[in-house]
Amino acid sequence: MLKIGEIVAPHGIQGEVRVIPTTDFPKRFSQLDKVTIRKGQKTRELQLVKAREHKNFILMVFKEIADRNQAEELRKWEVVIPVENAVPLPPGHFYDHQLEGLEVVDIQGKVSLGTLVEVLHLPGNAVYRIENSAGVSILIPALKSVVKTVDLINGQMHVQPLEGMLE
Description:
The protein has helices spanning 68-72, 96-99, and strands spanning 2-11, 16-21, 34-39, 42-54, 57-62, 78-81, 103-106, 111-121, 126-131, 137-141, 147-151, 156-159. By secondary structure, it is mainly beta. The longest helix is centred in the middle third of the chain and has 5 residues, at 68-72.
C-alpha cells in the first residue's frame, strides 16, 4: 500500500477529519469512493462522503464517522491506496517505495555507500538516508547535482557526493 496522507486531527464536531496530504496529487482525494486507512498492522475501509481542500490540508467526511470523538480515534492513521493505483510519474521521477532498498554507489570511487533506507521530506528538498554495512547513516540530498542516475532494474542509485559530504 502507498501512503497518500495522514489523519492529523478532527475538524469541527461532526466527524470531519483533517489530513496532511503526502502526495503531489491532492485532487485524487475527491475522486475516491472508499478510503483505506492504516495504523501499524491494522487497516480499515471507510466510505468517503466528501473530500475538500482547506489551506494545506484535505478535509474528509466518512459515512461511518459521526462525531468529533470518533474522528479523534482516527488521529495518526495513514490514508493508503494500492500501489497499482498510483498516479504514473514522468520519466526521472520516483515514488519513495521505488527508491527505498536501492544500493547507493559513489560514481567517483565506484564504491557502495550502503542501502537507501528512508526518504526524508524536508522543507528545502528531500534527503536520502543511506545505511552502510556497519549500520552508520549517511544523508544524501536528493539533488540532480548529487544523484546522477537511478537504475531500478539493477537496484542501484549512482551519486556524486559533494566535497566533504562523506567525511
